[in-house]
Amino acid sequence: MSEFKQELIHFPASRMIDVAKALSSDVRVRILEALAEKPMSVSQLADALGVAQPTVSINVQILEQAELVESRTGAGREKICSVSYRSILLELPSRPGDGLSRTEEIHMPIGMFSHCSVQPPCGLAARDGSGIGSPDDPRAFYMPERTDAALLWFSGSGYLEYYFANPMPPGVELAELCVRAELCSEAPGFKQDWPSDITVSINDCPLGTWTSPGDFGDRKGRFSPDRWRGNTEYGQLTEWRVTGSGSTVNGEPSEGTTIEQLKLAFNQPVRVRLEVRADTANRRGLNLFGSGFGDHPQDIVLSFVRRIEREE
Q: What is the 3-state secondary structure (H, E, C) of 272-290?
């Protein structure tokens, strides 16, 4: 019997790019067709489609990021996939500048940081909930296996810094940059009331500080694996945005940093830092969730929005 959600879901123009990319592949469309009647494991999908299992896994992850497919861990720790919705409604762009050509997004796996400073308790976990390296050993953050992390955490103060490519051609003006990530504080085990001040900076310019209210573990995370028990389970999806007039955190004005102050260059990386500063009031670390953990099927997302003159 189908487990689809019955409601009609409205996707605005700003979400079209994720959905359009997800539906642009014949393999991904075939996956949705195969899941039409019942949930299936990744190995069952591979058999039904006649496609290699690693190929299915990669394409399922893309469908998860677009929120067209959701997964849970079944018996034997195998991923069980199901379609999220029976129907979706895409809102086509109604004005110049509202369409697909305006926004470019880069999804960065959380383990692909270029620099870090962490202190124990700290650690990394893979998508199946197994640990990467030794627990509470900062050396694990320098192991090659860190690139497979779907959850990472550190206590106290510290930072993670990621280098993003600038996808905009020379001479293109940006209207805004947006960083989205699922985060929470870090406590032993978990603690719902455990505030931590998390700051995002781009090219050393602070965009603002979000105070996470706690380290959340009171329920299972939507995508957290079953073998991961008694610890942090999910975070809150948080957004930092910078424009020509300043920056915001979850839509609320924060720092006075403007996009011009970032000194972006097409041939230079965009350095995004997530940090709990040593001089902040609430130094209670952070948990950072990737696409295989928590409530949201995404890694760190950096969105570039072009400045397009509107036609009258």
A: EEEEECCCCCCCCCEEEEC
Dihedral sign computed on CA atoms, order 271, 272, 275, 279: positive
Gap between the Cα atoms of 124 and 131, Å rounded: 6
Helices then strands (H, E): number in the chain?
A: 4, 19
What does the pLDDT look like over 87-121, one tens digit per residue?
776 666 555 544 444 678 899 999 999 999 999 99
Tokens representing residue 238 in the block: 């948080």
Query: Could you give the C-alpha distances from 212 to 177, 209, 247, 248, 273, in angstroms and in order?
Result: 22, 9, 18, 16, 17
Counting Cα atoms < 13 Å in the Cβ hemisphere of 2 gives 13
Find residue 60's DSSP bridge partners.
none
Question: Within a 13 Å sphere around the CA of 267, how many CA atoms are in the beta-carbon half?
Answer: 1
Which residues, listed in sequence order, are joined to residue 83 by a DSSP beta bridge?
Answer: 69
In the predicted structure, residue 233 carries a pLDDT above the cut 90: yes
One-letter amino acid identity for 46? Answer: A
Q: Is the dihedral of CA 75, 70, 108, 158 positive or negative?
A: negative
pLDDT tops 80 at residue 165: yes
Kindly report the pTM of this predicted structure.
0.72
What six digits make up the tokens of 292? 């295989």
Q: Are 22 and 62 in contact (CB under 8 A)?
A: yes
Average pLDDT over residues 231-240: 95
